[in-house]
Structures are given as C-alpha cells and as structure tokens.
Write a structure and sequence with these properties.
The structure is a single chain. The chain has 41 helices and 52 strands. The two termini are 47 Å apart. The strands form 14 sheets. The protein has a 5-stranded parallel beta sheet with strand order 8-9-10-7-11, sandwiched between helices. It has a 5-stranded mixed beta sheet with strand order 36-37-38-39-43, with helices on one face. Helix 20 runs antiparallel to helix 21. The chain is of the alpha+beta class. Among the domains are: 3-235, Rossmann fold (3-Layer(aba) Sandwich); 246-461, Rossmann fold (3-Layer(aba) Sandwich), CATH 3.40.50.300; 463-526; 547-627, Arc Repressor Mutant, subunit A, CATH 1.10.10; 640-795, no CATH class; 1152-1250, N-terminal domain of TfIIb, CATH 2.20.25.
Amino acid sequence: MHRNRDLENLWPQLWLPDEPELSTARILTFGYNAHFSSKKEQASLTIGDFANDLLFRMKYGENGPERLGQVPLVVVAHSMGGLVFKKAFIHGHMNDEFRGIISSIKAVLFMATPHRGTDLAETLNKILTSSVFGHSPKDYVSELASRSPTIDELNDSFRHHASKLQIFSFYETLSTNVGPMSFMILEKQSSILGYPNETSQPLTANHHDVCKFESVDDPNYTSVLGALRSVVSIAKSPKANDGAPEEDMSQVTALLGVSNPPAEDFVAARAVRKPGTCQHFLRSDEFNGLVNTKLSPVLWVHGPPGSGKSTLCATAIEHLIDQDRHCAYFFFKHSDRTKRSLGNMLRSLAYQMALQVPTYRREILEIARSGLQLQGSDSLSIWKRLFSTILAEIKLEEEIYWVIDGIDESDSSKQVVEFISFVGDFKGFVRVLVFSRPLPTINQSFQKARRRTSVPEKALSHNEDDIRLLVSDEIDYLPSTDEFKAETINEIVTRSQGNFLWATLVLKRVINCHRQEQVRQVLETTPDGMAELYGRMLNVVADLDIPEDKTLAGILLSWAMYARAPLTVEELSELYPTEVRSVMDLKHAVSQICGQFVLIDAHNRVTLVHQSARDYLRKSTLRSFSLDPETVHEELLCKCLVALCDRTLRNKMNTLRIPQFLPYASTSWAFHLEGCSTESDRVLDMLVKFFNGPYPLPWIQYLSMSGHLSELVTVSRRLASFSRRRRKTETDRAPMLHRLSDLSLLDTWAVDLMKLPAKFGRHLSDDPYLIHKCIPALSPTSSAMHQKYSGSSTITLSISGLSNTEWDDCLARVSVSSGRALRLAVSPLYLVVAADRPKGSIVIWDTNLFEERKVLGIGEHIDSLAFNESGTLLACCGLSKTHMWKVENWCLVRDAKNPHRERAIEIKFDEAGSLVMITDLRRAYKLPRDGDTTQSLAWAPLSPGLLEEVNIPEGMFLGTPSSVALNAECSQVAVAYRAFPLSIWNVDPPELVARLKLKPKQGQRPANSHTGTNKVVWHPSGTYVLGIYGQIFKWSPIDDTYDEVKGEVGVIPHEIQCSPNGRVFLTIDVEGTIKIYDVAQMTVIYKLTSEDAVNRICFSPDNLRFYDLRGSYCNIWEPNCLVRIADSVSERFSDSDSISESLCFAVIPTECIYDIEQNEGPASIRPLTLPRAVLQAALHPLGILRDGRMVILDKNLWVCTAQLNDVQDTIIRHFFVPHDWVTAAGMKLSHLLPDGTILCPSKGEVAIIQNDMTSEW
C-alpha cells in the first residue's frame, strides 16, 4: 500500500492517523507483514487457506490486552485479498470460535477485487506474485478464472451474509503493464457485487496502483478516505449500534426490508462541502434551540433551489454523530422513485432507530416476531405500527434526532409534515430537522402543524461566506495573478446571490479557461439567475451541429430526465455501444454536449445537475430531438423490452453472466409503459412480441432470483390499465384496424401476472427455475402460462384429471368440525375462529398453510375476539370472564371477571395495550395492560357519563345499541341504535362530539331525519365512519360531510368492515353476497355470490385477503382487486359466482413405520425409525417406492423422497402441489402408485400427477 515501494507513501501508517475521525483507530495489516503472518513463506494453496490463516491471526495473533472483536472493525482488501476476506467472513459465521470477531466487522472496502473472477487469471497471477502475498500463487490461480466453481460458490455463500455489511467497491479504470503488454485486469462488472448495500466508485489507477496513492491530495486517496470517514464516523459511535445483536437486526431487516442506513446519500452530500463551510448554521440560534435548549421538537430549514440545503443536512448529521447523539436520517431524491417514497423513509428511520435504541428495538422485534408483513402497507399503516403506537408509550433513554432532506422531492410532502407534527406527543424525545424548498404547499402544511406543536423555521441566507470558500478553493488552481483571482472570486460570489448551484456551474466553465480573456468572456456571457442560466445552457444543446453529438445529447437527457432510477455509464454503454463508447472522455464530453444539464456523479451514474433542471426542461422545446414525456417513455420502454427479448437470457442467468441493464429493464419497463401513449402501435407491437414469445419466463425467473417478484403485481396493474385505455381508442378506428385479439392477450397475461405471486410466490423465491419446470403445468388450462409453456421440453411434470380452467380467488377453507363458526379474528400469523361446539372452543390456524395449530377453550359462549395491533396478544370475551393469551406460546396472561350481567358488544386494544370494552348496557370498561402474568384483574369502569343520553326526543327510545365501534386509539366511540341517531362520543373526557342528522329526502317529513343505524365501523384514519341504515353511507363527524352508495338495489346488507389501509370496505347480506366497495368513490369493485349465508367477515392485516364465516367453515379469499389496490387504487368491477374448496391440515406425526417381511413361515414385523430430517419436514406420508424410498408431502407441500436407511439423513425435493389443490380430507386420501404417480383428490376431482422422481430440483 505504498506507492513505488516508498515507505513515505505507506498511507495506512503515515496518513490515516492524521485524520481526526481515524486518529484513535488501531490499524492492522495481513499479507505483507511477515511478523503478522508467519505462514508467508509457506505454500498456501487455496483462498480457503489464506482465509483460515486470517481468522487464526485475528483471534490469536495479538499480544496486547485489547482483542479484535471488542470494537467495530472496518476491512480494506485489495485484489485477491477481497476474496480471502469473503471466505473468512463466511467461515467465521459458521464457526462459534470466530463468530464474535466476525460479527464486529461493520464495513469492507474492496479495492479491485475479482468478485466474478477474471479471464486474465494468468496475468493476474504475475501481478499477485510480486505484489500481494509474496510467494507464487500458481496453485490457486485457477480459482480466479471467470466462472470457476470457487468463485461461484464464494459468491453464493457471501450474498447471504452481505446484508450485515456496509460495502464500498472501488474499481480500476486504467490498463496494467505486464512486460511489453498492457491489459485491463478487471472490468467493472467483475469488481462490483451489485448488492443494494454496496457503493461502487471508479479510481483512476491500474490494478497494481489502485490502493496506492501519490499524496494526501491524490483524488483516489480522497475517495477512499471519504468512504473510511463515513463508515468510521458511524461505527465508532456507541450510538451507531447500541449493542444490537446480529440476530435481532436480521429480524428487523426482514420486517422492514432495510439493511443499512442511507450512507451513500450522506457521503455524497458531505463530499462537496469545503472545510470551514456551514459553521454559521451550526452556530445559529435555531439549530442550537433544537439541539441544546430543546425549545421545540421540530425545525424547518428552507431555501431556494441550489442554496446548499443537502450539504447543510449532511453537515448537521455529521455534527450530531460526532456528539454521540442518536441520529436517523433520510434524503428524498426525485430522480430515484424508491427515494421519493414516504413509506421507504419511515422504514429507514425505524431501522436506524432499532439499530441505536435498545428500548425501541425490543418493540420492533415483538412486531417482527408477530409475523406482520409491511410489504404493500401504506405509509399511514407503517406510521401507526412503527411509530405512533410505540413512541406514544415507551420512554427513550435519550433523545433521537431525525434529519430529513428534500421533503419537496417526496411523493407527499403534506403527509411528511403531518406525521412530523405528532412527534411532540411522543413520550420518547424525538427531534426533527427538516430541509426543503419554501413551496406554498409545504408552508401551509407547517402552518397546520403548528396547531399541534411548535415549529420554528430558518430561511437560508447570508451564505456568501460559504460560497466564497467554495469559489476560492477552486480558483486557487487557476494559473493567474492573485489580483485577477480575487476579482474573479468577488464577481462570482456577488452574482451568485447565495445560489451554490449557479456558482458551481459557472466555476466549471471558468476553471477550464487558459487565458484571462476567456474567463472574462465566460463571466460576461453568463446571465444572472438560474432561469436565465438554464436558458443559455439550453442554447448550447440546441446549437449542436454534429449529428453524433445531437444523438448522444438526446440519449443522455432522456434517461437523466425520465429514468425510474439513474443509470450508470456501463448500463448506457451496454444499450448504446456505438454512441457512448466512441466518446473518448465521457465525463468531460457530457458537460459540453448537454450544456451542463447532465453530469456523471461519483457513482458513475448519469443524472441531472439539479431537480430544478428537470422542471425547466419539461417546459422547453428542442428542434434536434423531443423531450416530450410520451415520446421519451416509448423509446425507453422499447429499449427495456429489447433487452428482455433476448433468447440467450436464460442461459446468461444460469451462468451468472447477467447483463448490466437487466435489473433496470426487468423492474422498470412497466413504469415506462404507464407513461406511453395508448395510441402508439409501436408500443402494442413490442408488448405482443414480448408476451407471444419465450421471453416472459426468463424475466420472471430473474425477478424471482433478485427478490422482486412483487413487481409482477405492479406490472399486471399497468398492463391491464394500458389495455383498457387502448380499447377506448379502438372505437375510433376502422374495424379492419382493430387489434382486439392482441389486447385479449395482454388481458390474459395481466391476470396471470397477478395470480403468480399469490399462488406460487414462495416456491419461486426458493427456486426461480421452477418457472421453467412445473409452474406452467400447474397453472389453469385457460391461462397464457399453461397454454404457451406447459408443452415445453423443460416441463417434467404431467397433470391430468382436473378441470381447473380458471384462476380461483379462494385460497383455502378451514372447518371448526361439527360446531358452528361464530366469531373470527386475524393477525399476521394466525386465523382464530370461535365455535359453539364444544361450547367456548377456539380453533387456531396459521395463515401460511392454514394448518391447525391449537385449540383453546373457555367453557362458555364467546361474545368477542380481538388481537392487539401487533398480533402478539389475543383477547376473548365470554359471558362471565375475559381471557387474554400471549400468542408466542399461548400462555394465559389475563383472566378477569366481566361486569355482572353485562354482555360485551365491542372489545378493542388501545395504543397502550389495554383492553377496552363496551357493553350492552352502554357502559365502558378498561382492562389495564400492566400486571403480573395470570394475575386476576378487574375491569375498571370508565367515566359514568359516557354514552349517557339525557334528552331523548319524543317518539324515540335507546334500548341496546345495535352496533358500537371504537376508533383506532380508543379515544372515540361511535354508537348506533335502531331507533335513535348515530352518535360519536369522546371517551376521555366523556362528551358528545356529533350526532348524525340526515337532510330530509323528497317526500319525507323533517321528523324522519333522525334515522337509526344497523351497523357502524370507523375508517382507519379516524376522521369518518361507515355504516348501514338501509343505505350504505360514510359520515365525517368533524365537518358533517355525508355520502351514500348510489343506485344500490336488492337486499340490504347487515355487516360492514373497512380494510386496514382504508381504501375499500366489505359488505355482506343474508343471501350470501359479498361486495367490495371503493371508499373514495363509494362504488362496487368486486362482487361474490353464493347460496350460503355469511355470518362474519374480516380483512387480513396486509389488506390482500378477506375471511368469511359460513356454517362451520371459514373461507379465505384473495381477489385480484385487493392485490391491485394494495399496489394502486385503480381496479375494475368483477364478478365471481363460485366458492372453491381449498386446504386445511391436521398433522399427526409418527416416529416409525413397520417393515413386514414374509417368506415361508409367519410374517415378521420390525419397526424402522424414520430419519430425523423426515420427522422434521413431513406433513403427510404418501407411501414407499419400489426402490425403498419413502415419499412424503413436506410442510411447504413439496413432494419429497428420502432413503429410510440413509446415513446422510437427506431429503430430495421433486415438485410441489399448489395450496388450493389440497384439503385435509383429500390429503389423507392421496395415494402413491408403484411407478411414482400420485393421485390427489382436489375439489371433487382427482389430480393425476406424473413425475419420474429421479431428479432433484
């Protein structure tokens, strides 16, 4: 690591200790120092040998009292050293001896590491011989070859552990001289991993010098130092990871889908700050009021575009971290759709809080273990579950700071501000620092927020000193006199008017000048103000006269403006090899060709110079090319589909030669489809080509491999939307030009893509190659998937005997045996149904396979069931007692006598975890959360005045409420009567809030305006209620707005339930009809009819399913409209008139089978103990094959085989059976024929499944 073998350039030893952030770090080396690695002269033959040596030296190689593993570790690894580290990291996690040390590694900097091997392995061997490990590595050079088994195995294993690390990958950009030849040892594709938590960065160096630097001013050293500063500034603070166990954070990651703080954005924003800048902000009264005096929980900092807000934000984050404060941050980016999402911001903040705050982490872990899934949840649900419910009750050890940049670039700045306004109500001390432009909508939102909490604001001004430091630092390198430099600096600072962006754009032109006259000309021709400057920049693009430059400008501006996420230069080079690769210095050329509108950032991504540039360009026109949204989206869509219409794509994926553009094309083509004109025949032609060919299967395989299978739901919605809009345009065309058959193809695929994740998602995630082997054969015969691909040579499964022609909305049906199902409750993990026989019985199924887990009993009639918000507690209210169980082990934790001779109408957990009850006598009670386990507690009555009506109009009477509903916080109660108006009450203090008074309809007398209500429920927002009084209505007690469902005829519904996300509601009537309505439009979007009466209905917590009780059965439904609405609110009306049989499981495991052998005498019977693996995996045994293998159905419905005498104790999977094919009774009747054919009863038919069972999947 020392340039030219000069020890004065040994930067880890001589330069890093001078850095304030790194001065206290211990720095150790492996591989160069003979004392550190005594095996240096030995012939270690493999990467594994070096890895084991590294682990041993880390564990036992130190003599001092401080051992590795006691503080966070950061690893810097060059070339093959990166492979050694990866191997050691994997081995360490598998070995208890080293797990403690390995778990302390928080980040790794890979320096030109051959992650995918190299085709120049022999050349690399020559370099390694002289530079890395000091001895000939010929014995292991074969491991470095591209696609070598060692490399593939290493990558496959490392990716399972990589989420625990912050990863930086630096790659070479210059050829390496080896003798008379010059080679590029590693291309970028081999030097980067492509993981979400990876930051990649090019260095201007060859393979040999990529980790060696000329001086502290070397740009390469600056890049590496910036990465080290970033990881160390976070890792060195005890707040960064407050003892968070690795296993705990893995569960948090699984819940939130976040594995690291957004350090990439933080590093990028901090990198542009010059030393000495931003100090005025840190010393300001407003910032000190937030951090030190804590006068207000929120500070809003605003400034115009280009005023340096993101840099100030990064400075504030760094300041808080340096002061050992808990700090969570997020940068909204309009150019990246994933960074516009409010839900993603909330997940990221929750992850960072869980990482730093043990109290909060414990609460998040409890939610994670309850089985809650946040995928598809809207931001309001995420806010309630992760923040308002938790932080309103727990007290944090120390305050935590949220620093949020660019809320004006978010999808909903109004909702961001609304959420922030509630932090003053938290028991935990949360302080929020927010940066944005001073848009009128944001200003209005903060004005409204001030009704709840104090929100001071700071307008960014007086930043001329910071701009002067920026300009002076750059102008200092200008080859001119000090006097001329001073004049130039003064003019730029004065004319910038506090705008960093203006100053930066001018500086880029000035520093490229070689004469004073050129500098003066630049300044004279540059207009003041951003709008005028953008106009001049646009003229540069318009005046391009070289055709190749015009083409390249159109390409770069199109992708920079309309890409779903910024593309890298490598991705664009793959798309446009001629246009991009022919440019000698693209970074320099981009600025000239695109008039400084486009730049290539530190991560080699093509982006716009600023969000304001996008706004300007959208309003502008160019003669050379079009930047019209529909035109550009069509071009980008076609590029994506061309990349997917590659007949060699499947083979490329199987050999891990994945094209660099494939991740973007696979996940973003439907995004561009949404922006296209529906009248374009070119778009329709491309879609038909794609779906008529073999291309969808490799595409789905890649989505499964990359963890993006949920994208199919989004694609389905956008494809169906395009088809609907296109059909409307067909009416204006001549009949000969109609393309109805093509649109029918798209409609069929839209349904298939919607159903695939629900029916086969878990199996595809486990094995993406199943899309080629058995999914088409298992799909309904009318589906495009079955019709196009079930006859493919790769299909090894044959299905007959079934008439399943259509996809089915019913996922499962479970039964409470001989009794009648009365009540139900659903959590993320469990479905709970109360039955009347045996009296007081409660049957519990899991919501994955709907396998019966437990039966509870209270011995009396059950009035109500309820889970708490997180699904960790279940409450059951009987006639005389209320019981509460902890779901984790079904241990009884509460047992309280009910109020005498009162029956519960409604029970609900409040935000504090206490249980609230409303009885038939219009009284309210609370069962507190606190108390010892199984302690007998009494219901505590709430205020006696609650629900007490004093003045009852003549001719009306109260009686028992027909319906009672508590809002989400249990702070208000809606109470309905059959002969008295619907009323809303505050719980504490008890007071009447509003009463529904309908305006008389034509022909009614005013006395009829007080109408009774049969059923009422709250909308999750708590701002209005939904109800039934003969009509279905919604009513806001806040502003007395009222709306009804129009045009409803037929039977009046008797039950109504609103979805957890508040987008839809369900109704049922006595004829068994279930309808789903859109809440906003109050219109029907789904209807299901049957001959059976429905007793109860309930939504699943993830909004994707609903459950109904009929007789002794509970049906589980997952209609397309709910899946689509979870992704978007648009959906068409649909009908379904059938109910499908599905699955329920009862498992009675046995530990042995019997071998019956009969020769000439009596039969001998001897027990054979089943292998341990079979006992753990088996759901149901199917039989024994002729060769002695046992066939079982495992808990994920895979058909598996196992040798009964196998000492290896292994199970081989062959194929799976879809969930909705199997019922409990059908599974018991399933039969295995001697040739391996399986007969499986399904929905009154018998599925004949043929497979040779000789291959492992």
